[in-house]
Design goal:
Ferritin
């Protein structure tokens, strides 16, 4: 039964972009976990708690992305190998300074934001408002997280360097 009213073949491009976002979110999640474990110094309490909040949020968003892929009649990727092949987010080195960790996470968030905007365009082009709605909600939350972390790290108005 076509309960969405959209041919699942038309949704292949949306599913592909969602799988790329799923891959990136999984690497972002793992980067946050590592930073949560390894953060040290004067910012320990701030960042330890913040990274935990961010990875808990990411865990829920990962599930939302996978479920959306299933909802539109496609299969979410579920292996680290596929995630590493599809992501634009680099794996982190865990032993970084607190400022380097913040820059790395900001770069990850910028990549997620970019990917979400592409998904919204792709989904809108095939009238997949459900995906637009899901991803738009995630986008506004990620933009706020990036703004807060950027403000904390005092990088206002500065271009964040790629951490790789």
């Amino acid at each position: 039964m076509n309960y969405l009213g959209i041919d699942t073949k038309q949704l292949q491009g949306v599913a592909d972009r969602l799988n790329q976002l799923l891959a990136s979110y999984n690497i972002y999640y793992q980067n946050l976990r590592g930073f949560h474990w390894y953060v040290q110094g004067k910012s320990f309490f701030d960042l330890h708690k913040l990274f935990e909040q961010y990875y808990n949020d990411a865990q829920e968003e990962i599930d939302d992305i996978a479920e959306r892929i299933l909802t539109i009649g496609h299969n979410p990727d579920g292996t680290l190998h596929k995630y590493l092949d599809k992501t634009e987010i680099p794996e982190s080195r865990n032993l970084l300074s607190d400022q380097e960790m913040a820059r790395h996470i900001l770069h990850n968030q910028a990549e997620l934001i970019k990917s979400m905007r592409e998904i919204i365009k792709t989904a809108a082009s095939v009238e997949d408002e459900g995906t637009v709605d899901v991803v738009s909600g995630m986008l506004s939350k990620m933009e706020k997280k990036a703004w807060l972390l950027n403000t904390w790290s005092d990088n206002r108005g500065k271009r964040m360097p790629n951490p790789t």
